[in-house]
């Protein structure tokens, strides 16, 4: 056996454990879900049968799906930019020499380590009508109480605020780590040239942070499409599906309505959306990323 062949076999053996896990927990479930979406849901008296694109045609006539899809898009548009911007601002702030800087960093990161169920219960204390913190503060200024989670106009916004509060600290850690690896001589040269803080940020800091921004953006988009835990505690998708998101609708369809075929169809829509967004992010941002 030649040295090249031994090296090739050795490399594939090193990749084998990761490849098995990737196929077993990613590719195979995706293919199995796609095949399930082509069949009807079987019961004891009515076996599953091949329906082709029938389940996908049902999506076009499902008003709940249209509402849930719109909610998911609005939720992503409302949480992803806000969480990234807030994380960057916090990272820039705690990267400076501040009094009790370690405590400030800990305070920003604490929401990230809290369990999702605990976070939902904390914010339920804020949003509960009458006795919640928001209504208590409003009452001191003579404002009437409001059912924040029971109003179709405010419930989705309330979920967005809670999600940004929880995720911004997590993304801040990546930005903070990236800021501490930037070469200080570049900033010293910029200050010697008389560049202001905004020019330094726009021309140096932010371009050098683009690899981190791409990584954070992908994670933020994925997180915005997989919110389930909070909905169990806060709204269960209500009122009138105003806070229902795509992944929760998939869960509801599969485990409350026991329509596994339609749930598989919804899952394929979710996977397609994530694939399009992921490819689009790489194509649009790759030329703006400056790797060192």
Q: Which helices and strands occur, and which strands form pairs?
A:
Elements: H1 3-36, H2 54-60, H3 63-94, H4 101-113, H5 116-127, H6 133-140, H7 155-179, H8 184-192, H9 197-208, H10 210-224, H11 229-234, H12 246-255, H13 260-285
Structural commentary:
The chain is mainly α. The protein has a single domain (69-288), classed as MetI-like (MetI-like fold, Orthogonal Bundle), CATH 1.10.3720. It has 13 helices and no strands. The longest helix has 34 residues, at 3-36. The chain is flat, with a radius of gyration of 24 Å. The relative contact order is 0.13.
Quick summary:
Belongs to the binding-protein-dependent transport system permease family. By secondary structure, the protein is mainly alpha-helical. The chain is built from 13 helices and no strands.
Question: How would you describe this structure in keywords?
Answer:
13 helices, 292 residues, 0% strand, flat, MetI-like fold, single chain, mainly alpha
């Amino acid at each position: 056996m030649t040295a090249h062949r031994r090296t090739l076999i050795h490399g594939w053996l090193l990749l084998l454990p990761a490849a098995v896990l990737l196929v077993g927990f990613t590719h195979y479930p995706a293919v199995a879900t796609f095949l399930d979406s082509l069949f009807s849901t079987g019961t004891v008296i009515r076996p599953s049968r091949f329906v082709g694109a029938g389940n996908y045609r049902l999506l076009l006539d499902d008003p709940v799906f249209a509402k849930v899809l719109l909610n998911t898009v609005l939720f992503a548009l409302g949480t992803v930019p806000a969480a990234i911007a807030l994380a960057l601002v916090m990272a820039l702030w705690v990267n400076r020499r501040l009094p009790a800087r370690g405590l400030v960093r800990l305070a920003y990161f604490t929401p990230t380590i809290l369990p999702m169920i605990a976070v939902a219960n904390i914010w339920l204390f804020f949003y509960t009508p009458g006795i919640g913190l928001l209504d208590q503060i409003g009452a001191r200024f003579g404002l009437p109480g409001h059912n924040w989670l029971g109003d179709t106009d405010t419930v989705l916004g309330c979920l967005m605020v809670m999600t940004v509060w929880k995720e911004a600290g997590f993304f801040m850690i990546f930005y903070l780590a990236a800021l501490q690896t930037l070469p200080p001589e570049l900033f010293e040269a910029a200050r010697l040239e008389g560049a202001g803080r905004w020019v330094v940020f726009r021309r140096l800091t932010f371009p050098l942070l683009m690899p981190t921004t791409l990584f954070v953006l992908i994670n933020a988009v994925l997180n915005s499409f997989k919110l389930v835990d909070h909905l169990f505690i806060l709204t269960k998708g209500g009122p009138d599906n105003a806070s229902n998101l795509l992944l929760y609708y998939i869960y509801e369809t599969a485990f409350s309505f026991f329509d596994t075929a339609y749930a598989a169809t919804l899952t394929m829509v979710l996977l397609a959306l994530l694939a399009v967004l992921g490819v689009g992010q790489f194509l649009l941002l790759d030329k703006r990323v400056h790797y060192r």
